[in-house]
Amino acid sequence: AGGAGTAGGGGGGDDVITVGFAQTGSESGWRAANTESMKEAFSEENGFDLVFNAADNKQEAQIAAVRNFINQGVDAIVIAPITVDGWDDVLTEAKDAGIPVILEDRTVSASDDLYASWVGLDFEQEGKTAGEWVKENFDGKGANLVVLEGTTGSSAALDRATGFDAAIEGTDITVMDSQTGDFTRDGGKKVMEGYLQKYGSDIDVLFAHNDDMGLGALDAIKAAGLVPGQDIQIVTIDAVKDGMTALANGEFNFIVECNPLLGEQAAELVKKVLAGEEVEKATIVEDQSFTQEQAKEVLDSRPY
Ligand code: GYE
User: Fold this and answer.
1) For residue 259, how far is its CA from the centre of ligand 1 (angstroms)?
2) What is the C-alpha radius of gyration for the chain, rounded to an integer number of angstroms?
3) Atom number, ligand 1, closest to the C-alpha of residue 260
4) pLDDT in tens, 142-190
5) Is 32 helix (H, G, I), strand (E, B) or coil?
6) What is the whole-number distance in angstroms between the Cα of residue 232 and the centre of ligand 1?
7) Mind listing the pLDDT tens digit for each residue in 213-238?
8) Which residues of 11-20 are buried (b: 16+ CB within 10 A; e: fewer)?
9) Lateral strand order in the sheet of 48-54
10) 258 lines ligand 1 (CB under 6 A)
């Protein structure tokens, strides 16, 4: 955390753009890569003065940070919204103050005239791709599946669940349990321990909404004397370095990518909006997916 530069305060005729960035927290490898990408793009060199805040995945703290940015009179605000709901008031306040808001990563349920633009990923498609892989490999086998969900109320968790459920609908796969592990390793490990106590070796497949929860679950699975990737097959989303390493090693079975490198596009949007240019309301960044073989091939060339 930290990294707030407050040089000059925008006065004295310089044209430095002061941007307040309200990040979710630091829950995962994806988040670390996203924060780095944002800090790089919103650098001094690129003409920005970045005021960075990470809210430890607490919605109230994130809203308070945005309110702070409004009071400070920043030129623009960027938010990676923790949850979809709860944004109407503070986004209205930003609008009334004439401060444009750009969303990155997750979406909100608030009306889209309360923000200038959003750049992120198609989470529903990510869930669907994961579900299609499960369907292809397990339909007709009477398989039992458990789910580790991301942060409750986040668009990433909601939309991934929607896409996944749609993909496995009509199959004979049983979803035994589905609980939140909050997108963290620790959360994934704890919830998986509970699943293993309850269902033991009846579990055939694990779908984790991100790599980190899957990585946490690996510890629980090994501690239970089972072999991850074999006794329990594992599908995750993100494709960060540690996840891809587990996939290449045979401990994960399939990963759907979620690209965290959104900084440049977010910075471009901020510049355009402040210059009064027209921008798209939504920009979706494309994702790939990886099997174990593909992970081996690309592992060394992955940038995060
Ligand atoms: O998948 C997870 C992170 O919103 C896409 O948040 C993001 C998700 C990502 O914590 O690792």
Assistant:
1) 10
2) 20
3) 5
4) 999 999 999 999 999 999 999 999 999 999 999 999 999 999 999 999 9
5) helix
6) 23
7) 999 999 999 999 999 999 999 999 99
8) eeeeebbbbb
9) 48-54, 17-23, 76-79, 101-105, 117-121, 282-285
10) yes
Residues 162 and 154: beta-carbon distance below 8 Å: no
161 lines ligand 1 (CB under 6 A): no
Q: Is 30 in the pocket of ligand 1 (CB under 6 A)?
A: yes
Planar angle of CA 122, 59, 242, nearest 5 degrees: 50
Q: Which amino acid is at 67?
A: R
DSSP 232: B
Contacts of 95 (CB under 8 A, 6+ apart): 101, 114
Task: Write the pLDDT tens digit of every residue in 110-142.
Answer: 999 999 999 999 999 999 999 999 999 999 999
**Paired tokens of 115:** 């923000």
Cα separation of 48 and 99, whole Å?
Answer: 16
Q: How far, in Å, from the CA of 13 to the mean position of ligand 1?
A: 39
- Output phi, psi for 137, to 5 deg: -95, -20
277: left (phi over 0), alpha (psi -120 to 50) or beta: beta
Which positions ≥6 away from 82 have C-beta within 8 Å?
24, 25, 55, 57, 58, 59, 62, 106, 151, 153, 154
Contact (Cβ atoms closer than 8 angstroms) between residue 244 and residue 295 = yes
Residue 298 Cα to ligand 1 midpoint, Å, equals 21
User: pLDDT grade, residue 254 (50/70/90)?
Assistant: very high
Take residue 24 and report the two structure tokens written for it: 């979710």
Straight-line distance from the first to the last Cα atom of the chain, in angstroms, rounded to the nearest whole number: 19
